Amino acid sequence: MSAAPSDAGEGMTRDGPAPARPAEAAAQVPEPTPVPTLNLANLLTLSRLVLVPLFVLALFTGDGADTTWRLIATGLFAIASATDQVDGWVARKYGLITDFGKIADPIADKALIGAALVGLSVLGELPWWVTIVIAVREIGVTLLRFWVIRHGVIPASRGGKAKTMTQILAIVVYLLPLPAGADPVRWALMGLAVVLTVVTGVDYLVRAVRLRAAGRRATGA
């Protein structure tokens, strides 16, 4: 007569432990909690987009010559630029990275800087060629990212981050109602921003070509 099974033998077979049931396996490996699209990081990104038309309105009030409105426009631009740093930090720290944020964040950045450059050019305070050079570079880099998206992602470089910060600083100096004596500072900062814009644009082009070539070799295409 065989012995009655004990608690120690529960879940055992003659060949060893019994395979876990699907329900038990699912309970052991909990599914990751999905990140909601409407989170703090994305709300900060959306706030930057909302601030763009408000900034443009303040910039053109009084034909751009009203000191109070220029200060308001500068403040709005500075606040919107700050959200670009904060939303990225929040997304990384609290795990709030979403596909929506990856798309909306660069769009918000380009909309803000583009609006400022175009606005200053319309007011006759910034040469159009500067705005065109920067716009062509930004659009070109975006197209490059889509060109190589099947083979990988081109991460932001230190030069690219320095370019963005220099652009923001130069635009702030142009927006502020400073005396004519500050013109050399404006030109120097914007000149540096243009140089960094072109140099980093060429760097992104080289990296994109190399990444695409490496991807084609890996796939045998």
TrEMBL record:
Root EC class: transferase
CC terms in the record's Gene Ontology section: membrane
GO biological process: glycerophospholipid biosynthetic process
This protein's UniProt keywords: Lipid biosynthesis, Lipid metabolism, Membrane, Phospholipid biosynthesis, Phospholipid metabolism, Transferase, Transmembrane, Transmembrane helix
Gene3D superfamilies associated with the record: 1.20.120.1760
Signal sequence coordinates: none
Pfam family of the protein (one): CDP-OH_P_transf
Protein's recorded name: CDP-diacylglycerol--glycerol-3-phosphate 3-phosphatidyltransferase
